[in-house]
Inverse folding.
């Protein structure tokens, strides 16, 4: 176990514990940035997809993981970001302007949605956002003049400083664009968590009553959380649109909303790592399944059969297993393993035990 | 006459929504959690009955298959609670929400694996029969749906508001610790409620499959049943049925009188409106929340 | 000068009168205790100050502000901090994070400067930490700085809650049963801390407490309540010997 002696406050304030940890993350970043040289185009595309999902996951993590407001409707905000970006680009706005503005617009939409949602708790909020996501599908169809309706829209590459960035023609450039966005969002998120606003999110999540007694304005904090969450999700939506190339009302269905929420649960609620780890699971599960199916077929000497719905079935089982056995997600599991090694042989089983509380009604209290 | 026909078919559909919503409300009343897989339970109930009755599967007589499949669904509800939900004792509502959504995925997958993805109908003695009432033609299935639903809701309502056991169950949800102290077997109550919700889902599934066809994605109907439950106030059994009927009736009328594209929005728009303006439902009394 | 003024406050829940036409005032610099049997409405007095309920009638003034005109989160901004009877800490956060939430009312940065973590945000964080370190030293919490609340024993949580309230740098500190559930040693510590909070930090303390030893040890004045109404008000000795108080605690002497 490495013990860090702290001699000034900056050691607590900076995002890394010590030089060793910083070094590890920098190496990880360098390896990731060099991906176009060590991955073929197919897997580079997959990795890009994972990063886009991670950005969307970071967006939802702000709201659900750190502010404690479960949303089953974030696909709606992916859609807003995606269409806002495309519509602006089609109107001749350069990508570097359209992209952040798309995020901003989605944030404003999110803050607007937050106003009625503020009064809703727990399952009511989940149902509210679920209905929102279902409605978005119909709204996109109805808003055909803007969105292209069922026929959808098509978007080739975009130009950045006269440089073509396109998923198919220049996959490496597109990957770097996504990586850059992911890094910027992550850094902003880290900063948020180490300052006042991020802490007030956590306060609202863990106890609204005492947050209020500490002077945190609950309504305002939730609204800001919604806005930030939706803005980041909007950015991810814009990238998703670019990645997909063609999209219509069904691209951002309610299933995507649910998948996004499940992803951050698997990754680990309440941690930045969780969004990335969850995205890796979501992104590579289909690949993993098809490879293992072929492998099983080769082993048994038969043909690989297509089983419809297999992905979701497996996904559901993984999720149930996580909620039952590792509610802190992959990141929580990793923390436990790390602590086990660091403290060997002094690790105790109940070190990460969480307090359980008896249910008290939220009705008639 | 035309409108009356619309009304009847709307009511019959609404009863199915109401039955799913009843499942939500039962579980919510007893555990303050929501079973997002209730719609998939219903789909499973339909398929289990189809598997027992239809000639291409086991071909049992309908009236024999009926109690068997309800028994299976009850056992399934109980097992879900016993094996999965009970382990979440003391976790947040959100954990249960996510877990039941995942459960829905698994049920959908399993149903597709066993019965395939083609839409199927339940072969039943009522099929094709109808009652003529003046100029009105009523399908026997529709009438059966309405009658069964009303009776079931009434029975559950009486059970919860009049019997000692039913009241004890309500108590269990409102303060688990206090319920323990009062000697109410909270866990057993919870298991019973889940079994009951399974049976109700089974009934809904049978009625639904008798009326129309089911496939593994039918369970997504559950989202509309949310609308029903929310409109009814989530804590009230008759409210759930009323909510279901409202949603069921609005649908055919909306598609008749509102421009295409807008009509299917109606139930969800109503759901959002209720959540925004009357978060505790249309039928519930206003309550003050204390800290 | 009176810091907090409760004037003819009445609160009803349905048919039940939780607080009945209650008036008292807390002078700046004193330790003021509220005692009474369970269900006397003591915690409700706190919850009214925290604006969790709206009183049916009456007024509550703090330091020249009408508390009934502001929203719940603004009460802390005037300089009122509190603890809770059934500890309400942020469970899935560290002790340090909990205390830093207490600094929220001194926030001068905004969304943008925090996301960019500009030098001003950094300065503010360091200031916050310096202030927090003083409180950690004061309450001997050094060993728990980076521990998650969910893993802490009850006694420590109780102290963390006091620390979090102090982190707001309040003028008035509301302690809701600070000694309940504490061991004899911990209660003694709490007693010295309350004394020091008043003497060293110059913070006025209003507390609800059952432990009469603690109450008579630290408080200047005591208000005895029963059924939401005032029974007696005076020095600890006066209140303890007041016939109405004895009757409320021991029943009518026949």
């Amino acid at each position: 176990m490495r013990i860090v002696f702290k001699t000034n406050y900056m050691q607590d304030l900076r995002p890394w514990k010590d030089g060793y940890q910083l070094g590890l993350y920098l190496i990880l970043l360098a390896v990731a940035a060099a991906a176009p040289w060590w991955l073929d185009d197919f897997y580079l595309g997959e990795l890009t997809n994972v990063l886009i999902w991670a950005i969307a996951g970071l967006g939802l993590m702000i709201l659900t993981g750190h502010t404690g407001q479960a949303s089953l409707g974030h696909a709606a905000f992916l859609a807003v970001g995606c269409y806002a970006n495309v519509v602006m680009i089609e109107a001749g706005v350069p990508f570097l302007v359209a992209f952040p503005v798309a995020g901003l617009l989605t944030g404003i939409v999110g803050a607007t949605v937050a106003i009625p949602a503020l009064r809703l708790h727990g399952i009511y909020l989940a149902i509210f956002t679920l209905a929102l996501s279902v409605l978005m599908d119909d709204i996109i169809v109805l808003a055909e003049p803007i969105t292209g309706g069922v026929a959808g829209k098509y978007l080739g590459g975009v130009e950045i400083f006269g440089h073509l960035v396109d998923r198919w023609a220049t996959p490496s450039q597109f990957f770097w664009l996504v990586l850059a966005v992911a890094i910027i969002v992550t850094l902003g998120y880290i900063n948020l968590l180490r300052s006042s606003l991020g802490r007030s999110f956590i306060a609202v999540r863990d106890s609204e009553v005492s947050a209020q007694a500490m002077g945190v304005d609950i309504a305002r904090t939730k609204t800001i959380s919604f806005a930030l969450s939706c803005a980041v999700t909007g950015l991810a939506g814009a990238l998703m649109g670019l990645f997909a190339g063609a999209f219509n009302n069904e691209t951002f269905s309610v299933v995507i909303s649910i998948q996004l929420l499940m992803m951050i649960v698997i990754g680990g609620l309440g941690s930045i790592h969780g969004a990335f780890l969850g995205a890796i699971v979501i992104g590579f599960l289909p690949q993993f399944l098809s490879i293992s199916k072929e492998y099983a077929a080769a082993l048994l000497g038969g043909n690989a059969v297509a089983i419809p719905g297999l992905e979701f079935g497996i996904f559901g089982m993984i999720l149930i297993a996580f909620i039952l056995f590792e509610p802190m997600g992959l990141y929580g599991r990793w923390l436990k393993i790390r602590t086990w090694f660091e403290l060997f042989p002094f690790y105790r089983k109940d070190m990460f035990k969480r307090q359980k509380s008896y249910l008290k009604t939220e009705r008639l209290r | 006459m035309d409108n009356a026909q619309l009304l009847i078919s709307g009511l019959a559909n609404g009863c199915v929504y109401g039955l799913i919503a009843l499942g939500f409300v039962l579980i919510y009343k007893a555990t303050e959690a929501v079973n997002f897989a209730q719609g998939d339970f219903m789909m499973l109930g339909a398929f289990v009955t189809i598997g027992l009755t239809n000639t291409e599967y086991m071909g049992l007589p309908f009236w024999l298959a009926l109690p068997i499949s309800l028994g299976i669904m009850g056992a399934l509800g109980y097992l879900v609670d016993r094996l999965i939900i009970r382990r979440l004792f003391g976790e947040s509502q959100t954990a249960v929400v996510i877990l039941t959504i995942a459960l829905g995925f698994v049920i959908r997958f399993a149903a597709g694996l066993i019965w395939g993805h083609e839409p199927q109908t339940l072969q039943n003695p009522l099929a094709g029969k109808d009652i003529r009432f003046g100029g009105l033609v009523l399908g026997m299935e529709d009438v059966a749906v309405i009658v069964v639903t009303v009776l079931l809701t009434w029975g559950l309502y009486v059970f919860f508001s009049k019997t000692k056991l039913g009241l004890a169950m309500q108590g269990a949800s409102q303060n688990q610790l206090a319920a323990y102290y009062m000697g109410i077997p909270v866990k057993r109550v919870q298991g019973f409620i889940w079994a009951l919700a399974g049976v109700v889902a089974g009934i809904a599934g049978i009625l639904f499959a008798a009326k129309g066809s089911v496939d593994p994605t039918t369970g997504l109907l559950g989202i509309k049943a949310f609308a029903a439950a929310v409109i009814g106030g989530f804590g009230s059994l008759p409210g759930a049925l009323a909510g279901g009927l409202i949603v069921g009736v609005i649908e055919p009328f909306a598609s008749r009188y509102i421009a295409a594209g807008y009509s299917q929005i109606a139930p969800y728009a109503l759901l959002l409106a209720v959540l925004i303006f009357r978060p505790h439902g249309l039928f519930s009394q206003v309550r003050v929340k204390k800290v | 000068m009176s810091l907090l003024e409760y004037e003819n406050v009445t609160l009803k829940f349905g048919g039940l009168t939780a607080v009945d036409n209650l008036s008292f005032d807390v002078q700046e610099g004193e330790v003021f205790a509220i005692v009474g049997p369970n269900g006397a409405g003591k915690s409700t007095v706190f919850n009214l100050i925290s604006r969790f309920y709206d009183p049916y009638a009456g007024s509550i003034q703090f330091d020249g502000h009408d508390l009934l005109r502001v929203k719940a989160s603004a009460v802390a901004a005037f300089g009122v901090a509190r603890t809770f009877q059934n500890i309400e800490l942020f469970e899935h956060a560290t002790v340090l994070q909990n205390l830093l939430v207490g600094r929220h009312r001194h926030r001068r940065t905004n969304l943008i400067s925090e996301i960019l973590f500009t030098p001003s945000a950094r300065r503010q964080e360091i200031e916050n930490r310096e202030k927090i370190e003083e409180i950690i030293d004061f309450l001997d919490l050094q060993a728990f700085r980076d521990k998650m609340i969910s893993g802490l024993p009850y006694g420590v949580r109780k102290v963390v809650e006091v620390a979090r309230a102090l982190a707001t740098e309040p003028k008035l500190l509301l302690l809701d049963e600070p000694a309940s559930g504490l061991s004899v040693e911990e209660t003694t510590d709490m007693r010295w801390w309350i004394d020091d909070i008043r003497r060293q930090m110059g913070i006025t303390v209003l507390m609800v407490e059952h432990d009469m030893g603690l109450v008579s040890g630290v408080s200047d004045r005591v208000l005895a309540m029963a059924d939401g109404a005032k029974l007696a008000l005076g020095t600890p000795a006066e209140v303890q010997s007041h016939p109405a108080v004895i009757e409320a605690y021991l029943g009518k002497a026949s």
